[in-house]
Amino acid sequence: MKPKREFFSANQLSTGRKGDLELKILEAIQNFDRTLGVGQELTMQSFKKQLSRATAATALNYLVSQGVAIEGARVLDLGAGMGKLSVEAALRGAQPVAVEPGDGFGEIIRERLASEKGGLPGAIVQAAGEQLPFEDGCFDLAISLQVLEHVTNPYQVLQEAFRVLKPGSYFYLTCENYLSFWEPHYQVAWLPLMPKPLGSFYLRIRGLSPEFLNTSITYTTLPGVRSMLKRCGFISMREQRIKSIVESPSLLRSRWRRAIVIVMRRLISVKLLTRLALMFALMIDSTTNLFTPGIRELLQKPHA
């Protein structure tokens, strides 16, 4: 279940050459895909996505839609990869701090920030997510995109994210859900929590290398991740919204839903109604999302 080592190292990813940034990015993706054993078509798809920064833009757009401030924020890019989130955040006026365990990706991030017109602000820190070299409460926002399934100790990483955030600030997390029937790195059908020896055999049959599975993947699941986040002390913004609606039914746009909440408040206490609403929402959410490929959570560190 746990990776045996950090997959990305400086020797693997640093080209040792200055100059063509796009070539460095392509070489890094090719290095990764050779380990997977996937074809050139998937490599080029990954290359285009990396250059477009579409996933980073989507994440930041979602945060803005939820009222999370980006401009002027000190943003922890936790597991920055090749820096597309750090670049996108800097373009929107943030002060990103990109964290990666190896300096190969760090080299690419540094060049990406510098290559933008006028250069972009941003710090690159070589560190593991399990032991961040920052003081308590020094970030306004932490973002981790598709990283948690690659760390050795997911709970420790989440604890560190909680520690370095300011009270009242936000943490946005996306990662893979290995209760699903899809393996996104190899792009193949997959059994939920497939034992790695069986998974290795299956990948070899498909003509793919099991090295990445055995060295760089931790099985993260929707229930497991939510449990760890709660133990760390994070508040789920989805749950917070449910509580707000029970306390203030006027937040609901739908008249009939608003009327139901008002009637229920007359029958039982607000505290009990909130508990029941949360239980019902979590039951529905677990039923509909338990086997979906991805996990997406917006969380808040409680105010002091």
- How would you state the average pLDDT, rounded? 90
- What is the number of strand segments? 9
How many angstroms does the end-to-end distance come to? 36 Å
- Please describe the biggest sheet, giving its number of strands, its sense, and whether it closes into a barrel: 7 strands, mixed
Helix/strand/pairing class, anyone?
alpha/beta
- What is the radius of gyration? 21 Å
Query: How large a portion of the residues is in β-strands, by DSSP E?
Result: 15-25%
Describe the structure.
The structure is a single chain. With 304 residues, the protein is of the alpha/beta class. It is built from 13 helices and 9 strands. It has a 7-stranded mixed β-sheet with strand order 3-2-1-4-5-9-8, with helices on both faces. It has a two-stranded antiparallel sheet with strand order 6-7. 33% of the residues are buried.
Q: Could you outline the blueprint of secondary structure elements for this entry?
A:
Blueprint: H1 10-13, H2 21-36, H3 40-52, H4 54-65, E1 74-78, H5 84-91, E2 95-100, H6 103-115, E3 123-126, E4 139-145, H7 154-164, E5 165-176, E6 182-183, E7 188-189, H8 196-205, H9 211-216, H10 222-232, E8 235-236, H11 237-247, H12 255-267, H13 270-289, E9 294-300
Parallel strand pairs: 1-2, 1-4, 2-3, 4-5
Antiparallel strand pairs: 5-9, 6-7, 8-9
